Amino acid sequence: MVAVTQPAAPSAAPDDLDDAAPPYPLLSRGKVRSLYDLGDGTLAMVASDRISAYDVVLDTTIPDKGAMLTQLSLWWFDQLADLAPNHVVSALPPPGAPASWAGRTMVVRRLDMVGVECVARGWLTAGGLASYRETGSICGIELPPGLTEASRLPEPLFTPTTKAAVGDHDEPMTYGEVARLVGPELAASLRELTLAVYSRAAETAAQRGILLADTKIEIGRDTDGTLVLADELLTPDSSRFWPADGWAPGRVQPSFDKQYVRNWLTSPASGWDRGSDAPPPPLPEEVVARTRDRYVQAYERLTGSAWTAR
Ligand code: Q0Z
Questions:
Q1: N or C: which end of the chain has fewer CB within 10 A?
Q2: Ligand 1 mean position, distance from CA 231 (Å)
Q3: Does the model's pTM come out above 0.90?
Q4: Alpha helices in 27-156 (DSSP H)
Q5: What is the pLDDT of residues 258-290, one digit of tens each?
Q6: What strands, in cross-sheet order, belong to the sheet with 33-37?
Q7: Whose CA is nearest to atom 1 of ligand 1?
Protein backbone atom coordinates (compact mmCIF):
# COMPACT_ATOMS: atom_id res chain seq x y z
CA MET A 1 0.00 0.00 0.00
CA VAL A 2 1.13 3.54 -0.69
CA ALA A 3 2.19 5.45 2.38
CA VAL A 4 -0.50 7.91 3.32
CA THR A 5 0.67 11.16 4.80
CA GLN A 6 -1.33 12.78 7.52
CA PRO A 7 -3.30 15.85 6.34
CA ALA A 8 -2.36 19.02 8.17
CA ALA A 9 -4.10 19.08 11.52
CA PRO A 10 -5.95 22.22 12.55
CA SER A 11 -3.98 24.19 15.09
CA ALA A 12 -4.52 22.56 18.44
CA ALA A 13 -7.52 24.22 20.03
CA PRO A 14 -7.06 25.25 23.63
CA ASP A 15 -8.84 22.94 26.00
CA ASP A 16 -11.85 25.13 26.42
CA LEU A 17 -12.49 24.00 29.97
CA ASP A 18 -8.95 24.31 31.22
CA ASP A 19 -7.83 27.57 29.68
CA ALA A 20 -9.05 29.53 32.66
CA ALA A 21 -9.22 28.24 36.19
CA PRO A 22 -12.77 28.73 37.50
CA PRO A 23 -13.26 30.01 41.02
CA TYR A 24 -15.36 26.98 41.95
CA PRO A 25 -14.51 23.48 43.12
CA LEU A 26 -14.79 20.79 40.49
CA LEU A 27 -17.40 18.25 41.57
CA SER A 28 -17.19 15.83 38.69
CA ARG A 29 -15.57 15.59 35.32
CA GLY A 30 -17.01 13.53 32.49
CA LYS A 31 -15.49 12.75 29.12
CA VAL A 32 -16.56 16.05 27.64
CA ARG A 33 -18.29 18.01 30.42
CA SER A 34 -17.49 19.31 33.87
CA LEU A 35 -19.62 19.99 36.89
CA TYR A 36 -18.72 22.68 39.46
CA ASP A 37 -20.16 23.22 42.90
CA LEU A 38 -21.41 26.80 43.28
CA GLY A 39 -21.88 26.19 46.99
CA ASP A 40 -25.46 27.44 47.35
CA GLY A 41 -27.27 24.27 46.33
CA THR A 42 -26.60 24.91 42.67
CA LEU A 43 -24.06 23.51 40.22
CA ALA A 44 -22.55 24.81 37.00
CA MET A 45 -22.58 22.26 34.19
CA VAL A 46 -20.10 23.22 31.48
CA ALA A 47 -19.95 21.48 28.12
CA SER A 48 -16.63 21.52 26.28
CA ASP A 49 -16.07 21.31 22.54
CA ARG A 50 -14.45 17.92 22.97
CA ILE A 51 -15.78 14.94 21.06
CA SER A 52 -15.45 11.23 21.70
CA ALA A 53 -15.54 8.40 19.21
CA TYR A 54 -15.00 4.70 19.71
CA ASP A 55 -14.88 5.37 23.46
CA VAL A 56 -11.94 7.76 23.34
CA VAL A 57 -11.87 11.53 23.62
CA LEU A 58 -10.13 13.03 20.61
CA ASP A 59 -7.45 15.70 20.76
CA THR A 60 -9.34 17.80 18.25
CA THR A 61 -12.29 19.92 19.35
CA ILE A 62 -15.41 20.79 17.33
CA PRO A 63 -15.94 24.57 17.50
CA ASP A 64 -19.21 25.51 19.26
CA LYS A 65 -20.14 21.89 20.01
CA GLY A 66 -20.44 22.53 23.74
CA ALA A 67 -22.60 25.61 23.23
CA MET A 68 -24.79 23.87 20.64
CA LEU A 69 -25.47 20.91 22.93
CA THR A 70 -26.10 23.18 25.93
CA GLN A 71 -28.53 25.33 23.93
CA LEU A 72 -30.24 22.22 22.53
CA SER A 73 -30.68 20.80 26.06
CA LEU A 74 -32.15 24.11 27.22
CA TRP A 75 -34.55 24.06 24.28
CA TRP A 76 -35.71 20.52 25.11
CA PHE A 77 -36.15 21.36 28.80
CA ASP A 78 -38.50 24.14 27.67
CA GLN A 79 -40.34 21.91 25.22
CA LEU A 80 -40.93 19.29 27.91
CA ALA A 81 -41.66 21.67 30.78
CA ASP A 82 -45.29 20.52 30.91
CA LEU A 83 -44.22 16.87 31.36
CA ALA A 84 -41.84 17.36 34.26
CA PRO A 85 -39.87 20.05 36.10
CA ASN A 86 -36.19 20.36 35.19
CA HIS A 87 -33.01 21.31 37.02
CA VAL A 88 -32.28 24.52 35.11
CA VAL A 89 -31.81 27.63 37.23
CA SER A 90 -30.11 29.83 34.66
CA ALA A 91 -28.66 29.68 31.16
CA LEU A 92 -26.11 32.32 32.11
CA PRO A 93 -22.69 31.51 33.56
CA PRO A 94 -22.37 32.25 37.28
CA PRO A 95 -20.58 35.38 38.53
CA GLY A 96 -16.81 35.12 38.13
CA ALA A 97 -16.98 32.40 35.48
CA PRO A 98 -14.29 32.40 32.79
CA ALA A 99 -15.38 34.15 29.58
CA SER A 100 -15.01 30.81 27.76
CA TRP A 101 -18.05 29.47 29.65
CA ALA A 102 -20.48 31.77 27.83
CA GLY A 103 -23.15 29.81 25.96
CA ARG A 104 -21.93 26.43 27.13
CA THR A 105 -22.97 26.64 30.78
CA MET A 106 -26.13 25.88 32.70
CA VAL A 107 -26.60 26.65 36.36
CA VAL A 108 -28.70 23.84 37.80
CA ARG A 109 -30.31 22.82 41.06
CA ARG A 110 -28.35 20.20 42.92
CA LEU A 111 -30.56 17.14 43.13
CA ASP A 112 -30.48 13.70 44.64
CA MET A 113 -29.71 11.78 41.45
CA VAL A 114 -31.43 8.48 40.82
CA GLY A 115 -28.91 5.63 40.65
CA VAL A 116 -30.23 4.23 37.39
CA GLU A 117 -29.63 5.37 33.81
CA CYS A 118 -33.07 5.79 32.30
CA VAL A 119 -32.98 4.73 28.67
CA ALA A 120 -35.83 4.55 26.18
CA ARG A 121 -35.59 2.96 22.74
CA GLY A 122 -37.88 3.11 19.75
CA TRP A 123 -35.51 1.49 17.26
CA LEU A 124 -33.14 -1.42 17.70
CA THR A 125 -29.38 -0.84 17.53
CA ALA A 126 -26.09 -1.00 19.45
CA GLY A 127 -26.28 -2.63 22.87
CA GLY A 128 -30.00 -3.30 22.51
CA LEU A 129 -29.41 -5.17 19.27
CA ALA A 130 -26.56 -7.18 20.78
CA SER A 131 -28.78 -8.21 23.67
CA TYR A 132 -31.64 -9.13 21.30
CA ARG A 133 -29.33 -11.30 19.22
CA GLU A 134 -28.06 -13.12 22.30
CA THR A 135 -31.31 -13.56 24.21
CA GLY A 136 -34.24 -12.42 22.07
CA SER A 137 -34.90 -9.79 24.72
CA ILE A 138 -33.68 -6.46 26.09
CA CYS A 139 -33.63 -5.83 29.84
CA GLY A 140 -35.79 -8.93 30.23
CA ILE A 141 -38.41 -7.72 27.73
CA GLU A 142 -39.16 -10.45 25.17
CA LEU A 143 -39.23 -9.22 21.58
CA PRO A 144 -40.69 -10.82 18.45
CA PRO A 145 -38.33 -12.76 16.16
CA GLY A 146 -37.06 -11.31 12.88
CA LEU A 147 -35.87 -7.92 14.12
CA THR A 148 -32.57 -6.60 12.79
CA GLU A 149 -30.23 -3.61 12.92
CA ALA A 150 -32.29 -0.38 12.94
CA SER A 151 -35.65 -2.19 13.11
CA ARG A 152 -38.46 -0.20 14.60
CA LEU A 153 -39.50 -1.75 17.91
CA PRO A 154 -43.16 -2.80 18.32
CA GLU A 155 -43.42 -0.05 20.94
CA PRO A 156 -40.96 2.18 22.79
CA LEU A 157 -39.20 0.31 25.57
CA PHE A 158 -37.80 1.38 28.95
CA THR A 159 -34.34 -0.24 28.94
CA PRO A 160 -32.59 0.98 32.12
CA THR A 161 -28.91 0.41 32.83
CA THR A 162 -26.59 0.59 35.78
CA LYS A 163 -24.61 3.79 36.26
CA ALA A 164 -21.03 2.83 35.53
CA ALA A 165 -17.98 4.89 36.43
CA VAL A 166 -16.38 6.99 33.67
CA GLY A 167 -14.75 4.68 31.14
CA ASP A 168 -16.85 1.70 32.16
CA HIS A 169 -19.88 0.50 30.28
CA ASP A 170 -23.38 0.62 31.68
CA GLU A 171 -25.01 -2.80 32.08
CA PRO A 172 -28.65 -3.48 31.22
CA MET A 173 -31.03 -3.97 34.16
CA THR A 174 -34.37 -5.68 34.22
CA TYR A 175 -37.34 -3.73 35.50
CA GLY A 176 -37.37 -6.06 38.51
CA GLU A 177 -33.78 -5.14 39.30
CA VAL A 178 -34.62 -1.44 39.15
CA ALA A 179 -37.58 -2.02 41.48
CA ARG A 180 -35.34 -3.86 43.96
CA LEU A 181 -32.73 -1.10 43.78
CA VAL A 182 -34.94 1.98 44.12
CA GLY A 183 -38.28 0.56 45.25
CA PRO A 184 -41.34 -0.32 43.17
CA GLU A 185 -43.01 3.11 43.34
CA LEU A 186 -39.95 5.02 42.13
CA ALA A 187 -39.25 2.37 39.47
CA ALA A 188 -42.76 2.81 38.06
CA SER A 189 -42.39 6.60 38.06
CA LEU A 190 -39.01 6.41 36.31
CA ARG A 191 -40.38 4.18 33.59
CA GLU A 192 -43.43 6.36 33.10
CA LEU A 193 -41.46 9.60 32.90
CA THR A 194 -38.75 8.13 30.67
CA LEU A 195 -41.32 6.83 28.17
CA ALA A 196 -43.29 10.09 28.27
CA VAL A 197 -40.13 12.09 27.51
CA TYR A 198 -39.13 9.68 24.76
CA SER A 199 -42.57 9.67 23.10
CA ARG A 200 -42.90 13.44 23.08
CA ALA A 201 -39.35 13.95 21.84
CA ALA A 202 -39.63 11.25 19.15
CA GLU A 203 -42.82 12.89 17.90
CA THR A 204 -41.17 16.32 17.82
CA ALA A 205 -38.09 14.97 16.03
CA ALA A 206 -40.18 13.02 13.51
CA GLN A 207 -41.99 16.21 12.50
CA ARG A 208 -38.54 17.55 11.58
CA GLY A 209 -37.37 14.53 9.60
CA ILE A 210 -35.32 13.00 12.40
CA LEU A 211 -35.76 9.62 14.05
CA LEU A 212 -34.97 9.43 17.74
CA ALA A 213 -33.64 5.86 17.93
CA ASP A 214 -32.95 6.00 21.66
CA THR A 215 -32.15 8.37 24.48
CA LYS A 216 -30.68 8.27 27.95
CA ILE A 217 -32.15 10.63 30.47
CA GLU A 218 -30.94 11.47 33.95
CA ILE A 219 -33.53 11.97 36.63
CA GLY A 220 -33.06 13.51 40.05
CA ARG A 221 -35.32 14.17 43.01
CA ASP A 222 -35.77 17.41 44.84
CA THR A 223 -36.17 17.63 48.60
CA ASP A 224 -39.86 16.68 48.52
CA GLY A 225 -39.21 13.69 46.23
CA THR A 226 -40.53 15.26 43.02
CA LEU A 227 -38.86 13.81 39.93
CA VAL A 228 -36.83 16.39 38.04
CA LEU A 229 -35.23 16.10 34.58
CA ALA A 230 -31.50 16.73 34.98
CA ASP A 231 -28.17 16.66 33.19
CA GLU A 232 -28.21 17.16 29.41
CA LEU A 233 -31.42 16.28 27.61
CA LEU A 234 -31.91 14.83 24.13
CA THR A 235 -28.58 15.94 22.69
CA PRO A 236 -26.62 13.92 20.13
CA ASP A 237 -24.28 12.93 22.99
CA SER A 238 -27.10 11.33 24.99
CA SER A 239 -29.31 10.15 22.13
CA ARG A 240 -29.13 8.55 18.71
CA PHE A 241 -30.65 10.74 16.06
CA TRP A 242 -30.98 9.36 12.53
CA PRO A 243 -32.02 11.18 9.38
CA ALA A 244 -35.51 9.81 8.61
CA ASP A 245 -34.91 9.86 4.87
CA GLY A 246 -32.69 6.95 4.00
CA TRP A 247 -33.64 4.96 7.08
CA ALA A 248 -33.94 1.28 6.29
CA PRO A 249 -33.74 -1.69 8.63
CA GLY A 250 -30.94 -4.16 8.02
CA ARG A 251 -27.98 -1.82 8.02
CA VAL A 252 -26.22 0.46 10.45
CA GLN A 253 -27.66 3.97 10.13
CA PRO A 254 -25.23 6.85 9.65
CA SER A 255 -24.75 8.70 12.91
CA PHE A 256 -26.22 12.19 12.59
CA ASP A 257 -23.21 13.82 14.20
CA LYS A 258 -20.17 11.56 14.28
CA GLN A 259 -20.25 9.79 10.94
CA TYR A 260 -17.44 11.79 9.34
CA VAL A 261 -15.28 11.32 12.42
CA ARG A 262 -15.85 7.56 12.50
CA ASN A 263 -15.37 7.16 8.76
CA TRP A 264 -12.11 9.06 8.81
CA LEU A 265 -10.76 7.38 11.96
CA THR A 266 -11.36 3.92 10.49
CA SER A 267 -10.06 4.83 7.03
CA PRO A 268 -6.45 4.18 6.00
CA ALA A 269 -5.94 7.96 5.84
CA SER A 270 -5.99 8.25 9.64
CA GLY A 271 -3.33 5.59 10.11
CA TRP A 272 -5.05 4.75 13.43
CA ASP A 273 -5.47 1.22 14.70
CA ARG A 274 -8.65 1.11 16.74
CA GLY A 275 -7.49 -2.02 18.49
CA SER A 276 -4.22 -0.50 19.67
CA ASP A 277 -3.62 1.60 22.76
CA ALA A 278 -2.42 4.46 20.58
CA PRO A 279 -4.44 7.68 20.83
CA PRO A 280 -6.31 8.64 17.67
CA PRO A 281 -4.58 11.25 15.49
CA PRO A 282 -5.92 14.81 15.22
CA LEU A 283 -8.82 15.23 12.81
CA PRO A 284 -8.25 16.98 9.46
CA GLU A 285 -9.85 20.39 9.10
CA GLU A 286 -12.44 19.14 6.64
CA VAL A 287 -13.65 16.43 9.02
CA VAL A 288 -13.92 19.05 11.78
CA ALA A 289 -15.90 21.42 9.51
CA ARG A 290 -18.29 18.71 8.30
CA THR A 291 -18.83 17.40 11.80
CA ARG A 292 -19.50 20.88 13.12
CA ASP A 293 -22.05 21.29 10.32
CA ARG A 294 -23.83 18.12 11.44
CA TYR A 295 -24.21 19.54 14.97
CA VAL A 296 -25.48 22.81 13.49
CA GLN A 297 -27.99 20.87 11.41
CA ALA A 298 -29.17 18.84 14.40
CA TYR A 299 -29.67 22.06 16.36
CA GLU A 300 -31.39 23.89 13.50
CA ARG A 301 -33.61 21.04 12.34
CA LEU A 302 -34.81 20.21 15.83
CA THR A 303 -35.31 23.73 17.15
CA GLY A 304 -36.32 25.36 13.85
CA SER A 305 -33.95 28.27 14.67
CA ALA A 306 -30.74 29.29 12.97
CA TRP A 307 -27.59 28.56 14.97
CA THR A 308 -25.79 31.78 15.77
CA ALA A 309 -22.69 31.34 17.86
CA ARG A 310 -22.98 33.00 21.22
C1 Q0Z B 1 -24.90 15.14 36.88
C2 Q0Z B 1 -22.17 14.68 35.01
C3 Q0Z B 1 -21.26 16.68 34.00
C4 Q0Z B 1 -19.78 15.07 34.92
C5 Q0Z B 1 -24.05 14.54 38.79
N6 Q0Z B 1 -28.71 18.62 38.90
C7 Q0Z B 1 -27.78 17.72 39.36
N8 Q0Z B 1 -27.68 17.50 40.67
C9 Q0Z B 1 -26.77 16.63 41.15
N10 Q0Z B 1 -25.95 15.95 40.37
C11 Q0Z B 1 -25.98 16.11 39.03
C12 Q0Z B 1 -26.91 17.02 38.48
CL13 Q0Z B 1 -27.05 17.32 36.81
C14 Q0Z B 1 -25.03 15.31 38.23
N15 Q0Z B 1 -23.88 14.31 36.66
C16 Q0Z B 1 -23.35 13.84 35.39
C17 Q0Z B 1 -22.35 15.89 34.37
C18 Q0Z B 1 -19.98 16.27 34.28
C19 Q0Z B 1 -20.89 14.27 35.29
F20 Q0Z B 1 -21.46 17.85 33.39
N21 Q0Z B 1 -23.35 13.92 37.81
A1: N
A2: 6
A3: yes
A4: 65-79, 126-135
A5: 999 999 999 999 999 999 999 999 999 999 999
A6: 26-29, 33-37, 42-47, 105-109, 88-90
A7: 231
